[in-house]
Amino acid sequence: MKSVHSEVGMQVSVQREKVRFISGGADCAAWHYPGTNGACVIMAGGFAVTKEPGTDPFAKRFHQAGFSVLAFDYRGLGESGGQPRQVVRVSDQLADWQAAIGFAATLPEVDPARIAAWGFSVSGGYVFQVAARNPQLAAAIAQTPNADGVAGARNLMHHQKPLAMLRVTALGILDALGGLVGRPPLLVPLVGPPGTVAMLTTPDALDSDRVLNPGNRYPDWQQAVAARSALRLGFYRPGRDAPKVRCPLLVVVCEQDQSALCEPSVAAAKRAPRAELVRIPGGHYEPFLGGHEQIVDAELSFLQRNLLDADPSPRRRS
Fold first, then answer.
1. Nearest CA-CA partner of 94 in 54, 44, 141
2. Is the pTM of this model over 0.90?
3. Each residue of 28-57: pLDDT tens digit?
4. Which residue, among 44, 46, 48, 45, has the nearest Cα to 223 in the 3D structure?
5. Phi, psi of 81 (to 5 degrees)
6. Parallel, antiparallel or unpaired: strands 68-72 and 26-33
7. What backbone phi and psi angles, to 5 degrees, belong to 145?
8. b vs e for 68-79, b when ≥16 Cβ sit within 10 Å of the residue's Cβ?
9. pLDDT for the residue numbered 312
10. Could you report the per-residue pLDDT of 58-70, keeping only the tens digit for each?
11. CA-CA distance, 68 to 53, in Å (whole number)?
């Protein structure tokens, strides 16, 4: 379903239109950039990061190269519908990916055999599982993915003070119990310095607002999340699905990443049958910073080779 208006963004110098699709009974909002080459890249931002700050810099470049783009908000976040708000549930967000893939295949300019998935951080982790479950995908890109929640949770402990960690955990349990009886979510900031009650207190996480939201470019992005959201993510290990990914997979890692550890993603890439690995120095947001041109070039080359140069006919028959 398309809305009646389109936007020529002040921050994004290409035309795009607001569209919506249904997932789990909720409307998921998305930006649709109609392309010219028949291929489509489906995109989602990181942990509680909405589509604009999470995808605009890359979506613009993909579209300029001729690709269609579908950049969406998960249900309960951003402009998407759904209740409760600001709650990150792995199962719901994976279902939103399934709905997005189905919707992208119906876009008039898109060849269903030339669809790729792109995600960063938590969504980059989802890409392993999404690609494993959808052999019809032509390609997938996992950028600075959170491939192993257990390793990530252990790492986060090194960047938080014990009392603050206990408070965050207690709030998460209280919020989860409240959710069972329909209470509104207890929200905590996405990031904060060690010793504060926040989801992420790693040094590079503190750069998120500066990097993703410079000059408060996206004032509607609510940088808070339900405390319950972290409880299950700490046990989520999507990198284990890497051996099941049959499509070409590009894994981008940053060697000094303190928010989504490099080595679990490298290990996952080694287990995927058709994976390519790009390693660059820097922290979690380096692909949005000084490494942006290098990573965009690598991702565009990968998409060109696997969505345009490759013969899609075997996928169409499957």
1. 44
2. yes
3. 999 999 999 999 999 999 999 999 999 999
4. 48
5. -80, -170
6. antiparallel
7. -75, 150
8. bbbbbbbbbbbb
9. 57
10. 999 999 999 999 9
11. 18
